[in-house]
Amino acid sequence: MTIELGYDMLGSRLRTIGTYEVDYDRLGSRPIRLGPFELSYDMAGSRLRRVGSYDIGYDKMGSRPKVVGTSDLEYDMMGSRLRRIGAHEIEYDMAGSRVRKIGPVAIDYDTIGTRPKVVTVDPDSTLDDELATMVFLVLFAFETDD
Asked: More exposed terminus of the chain, fewer Cβ within 10 Å: N or C?
């Protein structure tokens, strides 16, 4: 199953992951909803704390996500790249800069190679609420935290 990622007219903000719409705050700078799930932030409004029923916990410094719901996050030896969310292993391209796979979801990028364009779900899986949330978190919400 191939699912398109939709962006705004300028191509800078994610608007859809298949049928999951992404809504933004009044200023248009911060996502506040992913499909049916409300996104909640900390008091300063900078760190994502919750997606629907998934609480997001951070390390002691408060800078790096460590838990999403009941799923632990694992990082590489240097602690800079996310390697796993729960049962979903994350694979990168040869240079290690772009996510190529999140569990059963493969990611393809636009012609320039800078923006995720299409996700392909293994035939044995579907893009359910959990996978859509993980794709959003890995590709968009946590990308600046790596």
From this structure: N
